[in-house]
Design goal:
The protein is mainly α and about 325 residues long. The chain folds into 2 domains: about 80 residues, no CATH class; about 220 residues, MetI-like fold. Helices cover about 75% and strands about 0% of the residues. It is built from 14 helices and no strands. α1 runs antiparallel to α14 and α7 crosses α8.
Amino acid sequence: MLKYILKRLGFVVIILLGVSLIIYVLVRCMPVSFVEARIAAINQGGAMVDENAIKAMYEMYGLSDNSFGGILAGYGKWLLALCRFDLGSSFSQQAPVVEVIAENMGVSFMIAFISIIFEYLIAIPLGVTAATHQYSLRDYVVTVLVMIGLSLPSFFFGRVLQNLFSMKLGWFPVSGLKDPNSNNFFLDYLWHISLPIFCTIFLGLGGTMRYTRANMLEVLNSDYIRTARAKGLSESKVIYKHAFRNTMIPIVTMMAGILPTLFSGAMITEQVFDLPGIGNVALKATTAADIPFIMGYNMFLALLSVIGVLLSDLMYAVVDPRVKLY
């Protein structure tokens, strides 16, 4: 097991280097630059920026050379800084990237953590019951929920929730994270994130339910399930002791994406509900071509992704003792 983990960690370094190079080149090739956005904002304010000032700004942000060699040189500087555990300073936030991520991660983590727990607690049982009652009313209801969850865009569903529960019924706040007149911070916090959490749960249920149902149906049609039934085992024992355990193996694979999801934030949902989460900050940074933040944020998610895949592989041996890791 230890040998396998060390070998995989070696591959992780190579993968992250490749990912960082691809992301940096793509960011530098974006059709907009942070300097151009700043110049446009200054010009809209009525002031004019001369050529010398523009050139100085490009030099200050390290964006003066957009040739292939200049991009590689910029990547080399970023990589050397990373080796010193320095992700640089965000152009738009005027603060170290590590601090910006740490300050805005809490809201996104809380929403994602609660949403994922409820999503799996609801989706897996529904997927199992839909598979065990195939073509029944129960199965059709689950299928309809799946289609709705997969079809609704998050920005549309978020606006529907705001209009119904906030503007018309007045049960929840329209946006934001806190009420200045509230005396109970914890309850006020939960009150503000309830709609974003419900939006995230509902839109995430469809894929998990469909995945669970499909895998459960495949397992239920296996020979060993027919053998278990032929031996006279009760249906509940066949389903939950034999079938469900083998259904969990592909579900564990899907869970590899949970780790980056916890910290990545829901960009569109946070934008709709105006939440100060890391997803909202990342969306604004991408629009502004904030290279240091984009690099730091995406490399953080890339690291979490490869760790999640590694943990998923290790979980195989826990779920299925027949799986051997070399």
